[in-house]
């Protein structure tokens, strides 16, 4: 990732409210503290000791998750002073100073791993998203995430996708309809599945239909489905699908997308490219806490 490149963001990303983040951080801290607290720091570090440490990037990437890191430290001890030097969305290079932490040494060491877990993981999600967003920036297409998120972390992972320049697909089963192949098979037909969905939902709920063939796409267009997911189609078929649709529906491509294949997919003219691995398998960005 080049230092000079810019992650695509349609608008500034609104931070998630602390009310949403604090339960996640508390649960992570409690998991780590167990039944006896940080017995290593409590034994080795004098109670009165104070430290001043800096969060530093060891890899290039995009920063995300600062507020969770801050909460990890300040929930362990409100006396810890947190001074951010960068903001979420910042492009990092090895050696970038992210934030300074000063206060009771025991509490800083107790919070260190939880803070770095959140910061490294969410920065990894943002960085993975940015690599694809940068690769397709010459087209109107956007990279979008899926429901393939780690349990309990969906809201913050989807936030990190936005920070990295991507967009969010539905957040859960309750905010949009996505009719997939198994729904169609059980319903008996594509038309039956769509008609049943329309009869059951409110006027504010969108319907997306997954199709595997151009014949299914033609049927979806006849039914005026507003969003169509083109699943595992090769580039010639995607181009034909875009021409066939002619702007009558939003087209989303999916299926084993990589940074290398994304530009070709985007150049077919699809509107969205759905990528599951940017949340479920993004590599952690290496960030450390240095004296």
TrEMBL record:
It comes from the Bacteria. Residues 38-123 form the Quinolinate phosphoribosyl transferase N-terminal domain. The keyword Glycosyltransferase applies. InterPro entries: Aldolase_TIM, NadC, NadC/ModD, Nicotinate_pribotase-like_C, Quinolinate_PRibosylTase_N_sf, Quinolinate_PRibosylTrfase_C, Quinolinate_PRibosylTrfase_N. Transmembrane segments: none annotated. It is an enzyme of class 2 (transferase). Keywords: Glycosyltransferase, Pyridine nucleotide biosynthesis, Transferase. Involved in the catabolism of quinolinic acid (QA). Belongs to the NadC/ModD family. NCBIfam families: nadC (TIGR00078). This is nicotinate-nucleotide diphosphorylase (carboxylating).
């Amino acid at each position: 990732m080049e230092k000079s490149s810019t992650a695509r963001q349609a608008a500034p990303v609104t931070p998630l409210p602390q009310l949403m983040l604090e339960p996640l951080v508390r649960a992570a801290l409690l998991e780590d503290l167990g039944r006896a607290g940080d017995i290593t720091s409590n034994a080795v570090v004098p109670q009165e000791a104070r430290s001043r440490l800096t969060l530093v990037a060891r890899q290039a990437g995009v920063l995300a998750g600062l507020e969770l890191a801050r909460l990890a430290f300040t929930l362990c001890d409100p006396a810890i002073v947190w001074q951010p030097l960068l903001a979420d969305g910042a492009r990092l290079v090895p050696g970038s100073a992210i934030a300074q932490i000063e206060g009771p040494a025991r509490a800083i060491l107790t919070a260190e791993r939880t803070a770095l877990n959140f910061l490294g993981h969410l920065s990894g999600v943002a960085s993975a998203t940015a690599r694809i967003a940068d690769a397709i920036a010459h087209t109107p297409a956007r990279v979008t995430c899926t429901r393939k998120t780690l349990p309990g972390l969906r809201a913050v992972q989807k936030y990190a996708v936005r920070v990295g320049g991507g967009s969010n697909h539905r957040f859960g089963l309750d905010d949009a309809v996505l009719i997939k192949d198994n729904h169609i098979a059980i319903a008996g037909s594509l038309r039956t599945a769509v008609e049943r969905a329309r009869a059951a939902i409110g006027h504010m709920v969108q319907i997306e239909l997954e199709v595997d063939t151009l014949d299914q796409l033609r049927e979806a267009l006849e039914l005026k489905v507003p969003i169509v997911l083109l699943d595992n189609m090769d580039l010639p078929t995607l181009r034909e699908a875009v021409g066939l649709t002619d702007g009558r529906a939003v087209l989303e491509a999916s299926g084993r997308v990589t940074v290398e294949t994304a530009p070709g997919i985007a150049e077919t003219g699809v509107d969205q490219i759905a990528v599951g691995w940017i949340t479920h398998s993004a590599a952690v960005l290496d960030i450390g806490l240095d004296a």
